[in-house]
Queue: 2 jobs
Job 1
Amino acid sequence: MESPLKYEKHIFICTNQRGENAPRPSCGEHPGIELVKAFKKAINDKKLNIPIRAQKAGCLDLCEQGPTVAVYPEGVFYGNVQLEDVQEIVDEHITNGQVVERLRLRFDKV
Ligand code: FES
């Protein structure tokens, strides 16, 4: 079946770095690019048969909750993502379509 989407899953990993004295924290300080590499490896290891891409991204404006990761087309944002969380996101969300609720950032209006 044809899809209008370039990627069925597109993962954006914030690696923004502002420097030491910046007024807001930066996701890219730690684990930074290692997080991008971990997502790429986990996806490759899964050998998923879908068009998928994981890439570094600039600031997603959720700096205080970083490191942040966004997954499209769902538009789900994850916060405080560490290297040990990558496999769970790939296994549960990317592979099984189940959002990892413990890491999900919510923007519900109250
Ligand atoms: S620095 Fe990552 S969301 Fe702003």
Job 2
Amino acid sequence: MENSQRWICRKCLLKDLPEKNYLRNMYTYIANLSEDDKVSDKEYECRLMKCRECVQLINGMCRICGCFVEMRAVIAVRHCPDNDPKW
Ligand code: SF4
């Protein structure tokens, strides 16, 4: 089993995981999404750039929706939850 697969737990909350593992889990989740579900790399970077410039971004999370923006922005059907959407 690959090292990255060892920390996939379908029942754990973030608080139940060792701190550095939940970030690794997020990146594993993103990497394993179907290409059909993801935006292009260019669109992803564009979305994240807008989040970086946004006052609602705190510690990687959007204060409006509570999502980790790196996870939200990669999914094609998601959008910025602001009343004036940035992406
Ligand atoms: S998702 Fe939208 S509101 Fe949230 S941090 Fe990104 S740009 Fe800002």
